[in-house]
Protein backbone atom coordinates (compact mmCIF):
# COMPACT_ATOMS: atom_id res chain seq x y z
CA UNK A 1 0.00 0.00 0.00
CA UNK A 2 1.16 3.55 -0.72
CA UNK A 3 2.13 5.72 2.24
CA UNK A 4 -0.83 8.13 2.02
CA UNK A 5 -3.82 8.44 4.34
CA UNK A 6 -7.22 9.14 2.77
CA UNK A 7 -9.97 10.75 4.85
CA UNK A 8 -13.55 10.07 3.82
CA UNK A 9 -16.84 10.95 5.47
CA UNK A 10 -19.88 13.16 5.39
CA UNK A 11 -19.78 16.94 5.06
CA UNK A 12 -18.80 18.43 8.40
CA UNK A 13 -17.16 15.26 9.71
CA UNK A 14 -13.86 17.15 10.08
CA UNK A 15 -11.91 15.77 7.10
CA UNK A 16 -10.18 19.05 6.21
CA UNK A 17 -9.42 20.19 9.76
CA UNK A 18 -8.26 16.78 10.98
CA UNK A 19 -6.39 16.20 7.71
CA UNK A 20 -4.37 19.39 8.10
CA UNK A 21 -3.53 18.58 11.71
CA UNK A 22 -2.57 15.03 10.82
CA UNK A 23 -0.35 16.23 7.97
CA UNK A 24 1.36 18.65 10.34
CA UNK A 25 1.90 15.96 13.00
CA UNK A 26 3.38 13.54 10.43
CA UNK A 27 5.24 16.13 8.38
CA UNK A 28 3.25 14.96 5.35
CA UNK A 29 1.68 17.05 2.59
CA UNK A 30 -2.01 17.87 2.71
CA UNK A 31 -4.38 17.82 -0.25
CA UNK A 32 -8.13 18.33 -0.44
CA UNK A 33 -10.02 17.05 -3.50
CA UNK A 34 -12.50 19.96 -3.48
CA UNK A 35 -9.63 22.48 -3.38
CA UNK A 36 -7.86 20.55 -6.15
CA UNK A 37 -10.98 20.66 -8.34
CA UNK A 38 -11.47 24.36 -7.64
CA UNK A 39 -7.88 25.20 -8.53
CA UNK A 40 -7.92 23.06 -11.69
CA UNK A 41 -11.25 24.42 -12.93
CA UNK A 42 -10.92 27.98 -11.65
CA UNK A 43 -14.47 27.72 -10.23
CA UNK A 44 -15.92 27.18 -6.78
CA UNK A 45 -17.72 23.89 -6.05
CA UNK A 46 -20.92 25.88 -5.66
CA UNK A 47 -20.46 27.44 -9.13
CA UNK A 48 -19.72 24.06 -10.72
CA UNK A 49 -22.96 22.66 -9.23
CA UNK A 50 -25.03 25.64 -10.33
CA UNK A 51 -23.60 26.10 -13.82
CA UNK A 52 -22.81 22.50 -14.84
CA UNK A 53 -24.79 20.34 -12.41
CA UNK A 54 -23.93 17.64 -9.91
CA UNK A 55 -23.13 14.97 -12.52
CA UNK A 56 -20.45 17.21 -14.09
CA UNK A 57 -18.96 17.68 -10.63
CA UNK A 58 -18.94 13.91 -10.04
CA UNK A 59 -17.08 13.40 -13.33
CA UNK A 60 -14.50 15.99 -12.24
CA UNK A 61 -14.15 14.19 -8.91
CA UNK A 62 -13.32 10.90 -10.63
CA UNK A 63 -10.79 12.41 -13.06
CA UNK A 64 -9.13 14.38 -10.24
CA UNK A 65 -8.87 11.28 -8.09
CA UNK A 66 -7.30 9.32 -10.96
CA UNK A 67 -4.71 12.11 -11.39
CA UNK A 68 -3.97 12.25 -7.67
CA UNK A 69 -3.56 8.47 -7.60
CA UNK A 70 -0.63 8.89 -10.01
CA UNK A 71 1.12 11.64 -8.07
CA UNK A 72 0.48 11.49 -4.33
CA UNK A 73 2.87 10.14 -1.78
CA UNK A 74 3.56 11.13 1.81
CA UNK A 75 0.21 12.87 1.73
CA UNK A 76 -2.99 13.21 3.73
CA UNK A 77 -5.86 13.40 1.25
CA UNK A 78 -9.15 14.87 2.38
CA UNK A 79 -12.05 14.05 0.05
CA UNK A 80 -15.48 15.51 -0.71
CA UNK A 81 -18.35 13.79 1.09
CA UNK A 82 -19.70 12.21 -2.10
CA UNK A 83 -16.37 10.85 -3.33
CA UNK A 84 -16.73 7.21 -2.14
CA UNK A 85 -20.13 6.77 -3.80
CA UNK A 86 -18.94 5.90 -7.30
CA UNK A 87 -17.51 2.42 -7.52
CA UNK A 88 -14.48 3.52 -9.54
CA UNK A 89 -13.72 6.19 -6.93
CA UNK A 90 -13.95 3.66 -4.11
CA UNK A 91 -11.31 1.56 -5.85
CA UNK A 92 -9.06 4.57 -6.46
CA UNK A 93 -9.36 5.70 -2.84
CA UNK A 94 -8.16 2.31 -1.66
CA UNK A 95 -5.26 2.39 -4.10
CA UNK A 96 -4.18 5.81 -2.83
CA UNK A 97 -3.73 4.76 0.79
CA UNK A 98 -5.21 3.73 4.12
CA UNK A 99 -8.83 4.89 4.10
CA UNK A 100 -10.09 6.45 7.33
CA UNK A 101 -13.80 7.16 7.77
CA UNK A 102 -14.50 10.13 10.05
CA UNK A 103 -17.95 9.80 11.60
CA UNK A 104 -20.15 12.40 13.26
CA UNK A 105 -23.77 12.09 14.42
CA UNK A 106 -26.48 13.90 12.48
CA UNK A 107 -26.96 16.36 15.35
CA UNK A 108 -23.27 17.27 15.50
CA UNK A 109 -23.15 17.46 11.70
CA UNK A 110 -26.10 19.84 11.72
CA UNK A 111 -24.52 22.05 14.39
CA UNK A 112 -21.24 22.20 12.49
CA UNK A 113 -22.86 23.04 9.15
CA UNK A 114 -25.79 25.26 10.01
CA UNK A 115 -25.55 28.56 8.17
CA UNK A 116 -23.01 27.17 5.70
CA UNK A 117 -23.63 28.54 2.20
CA UNK A 118 -20.90 26.67 0.33
CA UNK A 119 -22.48 23.21 0.19
CA UNK A 120 -25.17 22.92 -2.51
CA UNK A 121 -26.54 19.61 -1.21
CA UNK A 122 -27.58 21.23 2.08
CA UNK A 123 -29.03 24.37 0.56
CA UNK A 124 -32.68 23.21 0.66
CA UNK A 125 -35.49 24.19 3.03
CA UNK A 126 -34.76 21.50 5.56
CA UNK A 127 -31.02 20.84 5.99
CA UNK A 128 -31.55 18.47 8.94
CA UNK A 129 -33.74 16.22 6.79
CA UNK A 130 -31.20 16.36 3.95
CA UNK A 131 -28.42 15.42 6.37
CA UNK A 132 -30.43 12.52 7.79
CA UNK A 133 -31.42 11.13 4.39
CA UNK A 134 -27.96 11.45 2.88
CA UNK A 135 -26.28 10.01 5.98
CA UNK A 136 -28.59 6.97 5.99
CA UNK A 137 -27.95 6.36 2.32
CA UNK A 138 -24.22 6.93 2.41
CA UNK A 139 -23.01 5.45 5.69
CA UNK A 140 -23.11 1.80 4.54
CA UNK A 141 -21.09 2.79 1.45
CA UNK A 142 -18.57 4.76 3.50
CA UNK A 143 -18.16 1.81 5.87
CA UNK A 144 -17.51 -0.59 3.02
CA UNK A 145 -14.71 1.56 1.60
CA UNK A 146 -13.03 2.37 4.94
CA UNK A 147 -10.13 0.48 6.48
CA UNK A 148 -10.83 2.10 9.84
CA UNK A 149 -13.65 4.13 11.37
CA UNK A 150 -13.01 7.02 13.76
CA UNK A 151 -15.72 8.86 15.66
CA UNK A 152 -15.30 12.63 15.95
CA UNK A 153 -18.23 13.55 18.25
CA UNK A 154 -17.23 15.26 21.52
CA UNK A 155 -13.54 14.62 21.00
CA UNK A 156 -10.45 16.78 20.82
CA UNK A 157 -8.51 17.05 17.56
CA UNK A 158 -5.51 15.75 19.48
CA UNK A 159 -7.23 12.50 20.42
CA UNK A 160 -8.61 11.96 16.90
CA UNK A 161 -5.22 12.57 15.28
CA UNK A 162 -3.56 10.18 17.74
CA UNK A 163 -6.09 7.45 17.05
CA UNK A 164 -5.42 7.72 13.30
CA UNK A 165 -1.65 7.74 13.89
CA UNK A 166 -1.95 4.53 15.91
CA UNK A 167 -3.89 2.81 13.13
CA UNK A 168 -1.35 3.96 10.58
CA UNK A 169 1.57 2.63 12.60
CA UNK A 170 -0.16 -0.74 13.20
CA UNK A 171 -1.21 -1.24 9.60
C1 LIG B 1 -20.34 16.95 -1.20
C2 LIG B 1 -19.45 17.33 -0.22
C3 LIG B 1 -18.61 18.54 -0.33
C4 LIG B 1 -18.37 18.88 -1.81
C5 LIG B 1 -19.67 18.98 -2.53
C6 LIG B 1 -20.48 17.69 -2.49
C7 LIG B 1 -21.16 15.73 -0.98
O1 LIG B 1 -17.36 18.35 0.32
O2 LIG B 1 -17.55 17.93 -2.40
O3 LIG B 1 -20.40 20.04 -1.98
O4 LIG B 1 -21.70 15.18 -1.96
O5 LIG B 1 -21.24 15.29 0.18
P1 LIG B 1 -17.17 18.28 1.94
O6 LIG B 1 -17.50 16.89 2.36
O7 LIG B 1 -15.73 18.62 2.13
O8 LIG B 1 -18.09 19.28 2.52
Task: Give structural attributes.
single chain; 171 residues; alpha/beta
Can you describe what's shown?
The chain has 171 residues and is α/β, with parallel strands linked by helices. 57% of the residues lie in helices and 14% in strands. Strands 2-3-1-4-5 form a five-stranded parallel β-sheet, sandwiched between helices. Helix 1 packs across helix 8, helix 3 (45-52) crosses helix 4 (54-71) and helix 6 (106-113) packs across helix 7. The longest helix is centred in the last third of the chain and has 19 residues, at 127-145. Bound molecules: shikimate-3-phosphate (S3P). Shikimate-3-phosphate binds at residues 11, 15, 34, 45, 80-82, 119-121.
Q: Could you provide a short overview of the structure?
A:
This protein is of the alpha/beta class. Helix content is about 55%, strand content about 15%.
Low-confidence stretches: none
Shape: globular
| Cα-based radius of gyration, to the nearest Å | 15 Å
Beta-strand content bin: 5-15%
What string, H for helix and E for strand, traces the elements in order? Answer: EHEHHHEHEHHEH
Mean pLDDT, as a whole number?
96
**What percent of residues adopt helix (DSSP H or I)?**
55-70%
Largest sheet at a glance? Answer: 5 strands, parallel
SSE diagram, text form:
Elements: E1 4-8, H1 15-26, E2 29-32, H2 33-41, H3 45-52, H4 54-71, E3 75-78, H5 87-96, E4 97-103, H6 106-113, H7 127-145, E5 148-151, H8 157-170
Parallel strand pairs: 1-3, 1-4, 2-3, 4-5
The protein binds shikimate-3-phosphate.
Amino acid sequence: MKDNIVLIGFMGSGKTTIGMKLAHAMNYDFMDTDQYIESQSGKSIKDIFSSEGEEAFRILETSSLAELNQSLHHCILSTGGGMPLRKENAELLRQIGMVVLLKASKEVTYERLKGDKTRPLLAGENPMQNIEELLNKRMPIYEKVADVVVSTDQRTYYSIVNEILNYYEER
